[in-house]
Design goal:
This protein is an alpha+beta fold. The protein is built from 5 helices and 4 strands, in the order H-E-E-H-E-E-H-H-H.
Length: about 140
């Protein structure tokens, strides 16, 4: 009887599976952040701009969408070597809304989306690794 072990193949499968789990988790974080921007409740002041009534977000709430630029600027980026996923919002005001400034209180949307999905990300990575290792028999 010959028993062979290919640690390199196992490591490659685990790495690929972990990357798939990170991909699933990162996409979920992006979707959650965008949903929080688009969906009520928003409890800030109500005003009219360009003939349209708009209700702003209050401090601590995800920003209320007005033009849709913030939500549309969201994208994901991956580094497969580091098994890393990032959610990036690229408008010039994304950071100011997330963390606040001297003039505006924070309207976090990205960090809460990550926090809400922490368990989902861990489960996704775990599921993908388990499934990939099942092929070794």
């Amino acid at each position: 009887m010959v028993v062979s072990w290919s640690g390199k193949d196992v490591l490659s499968k685990i790495t690929n599976a972990a990357n798939i789990g990170v991909f699933r988790g990162t996409e979920q974080v992006l979707a959650t952040a965008v949903k929080s921007i688009h969906n009520p409740p928003k409890t800030g002041h109500i005003y009219k701009r360009r003939g349209v009534v708009h209700q702003a977000s209050a401090p601590g709430e995800a920003p209320a969408t007005d033009t849709g630029r913030l939500a549309q600027s969201g994208r994901t980026e991956y580094d497969r070597k580091k098994i890393l996923g990032r959610v990036i919002f690229s408008t010039n005001y994304a950071r100011e809304l997330e963390y606040g400034t001297q003039k505006i209180e924070p309207r976090p949307y990205a960090r809460p989306a990550l926090a809400v999905n922490k368990d989902f990300i861990q489960q996704a990575v775990k599921e993908e690794i388990i499934a990939s290792l099942a092929s070794f028999k």
